[in-house]
TrEMBL record:
It comes from Aestuariibaculum sediminum. Keywords: Membrane, Transmembrane, Transmembrane helix. InterPro entries: Phage_phiKZ_Orf197. The chain crosses the membrane at residues 37-53, 59-78, 85-106, 121-143, 164-191, 211-234. This is DUF3307 domain-containing protein.
Amino acid sequence: MMLLIKLLAAHLIGDFFIQPKRWVIEKERKKLKSPKLYIHVLIHILLTAVVLWEVKLWPVPLIIGVSHFIIDALKLYYQKKKTKRLFFFIDQFLHLSVIVVCYYFFSNSVIEITNQDTETLIFFILCLAFLTTPASIIMKNIFMKWNISKLTKNNASLKDAGKYIGILERCLVFVFIVFGHWEAVGFLITAKSVFRFGDLKESKHRKLTEYILIGTLISFSIAITTGIIFNLFINHV
């Protein structure tokens, strides 16, 4: 299982944490002519090699790198403005599928030297990391079809406030579920609803209310699902 955790960690770091938005924009504009595409693939190869740190697993970074290049290149050439959101999720699904395949084919070649507590801690950190920037990017792609600026054109807000509120609430929900305090999740949902109700009770804010409600439910759903996956993991290691 540790091999799978390492591969997932390398993917999260390479695709979400150290890939600037300007790289994504340049890749979409220049496609195969963009140097950032090749740097991005090279980063994935190096990250995978570093986290594995096992000579006998040398084919894995190559498989990850080559498949990543092919998947990204196909996405860049075939995605349109209207299908950008769909291709984002297809892209991530294919990358994760390659990781799972590598895990099943090469897991027998790895001698696990970590104990259960170490695996649990590393997976806990990985889950928390997923609930920060990666989950925010996933939600941004989900909401790509709606223009939030039109819904809030007369109401200024703090820069990136929604992003950080979402990160905090997902991390809190995850921690509550891991420690078995489901009632605290209900309290958090109620508290957020109370704070929002005063601002959104008028009919003219109906679209914004629906937008925030959908966002809240998706954010909590991601956190709850991650918490359940973590609990299933620790029950089977």
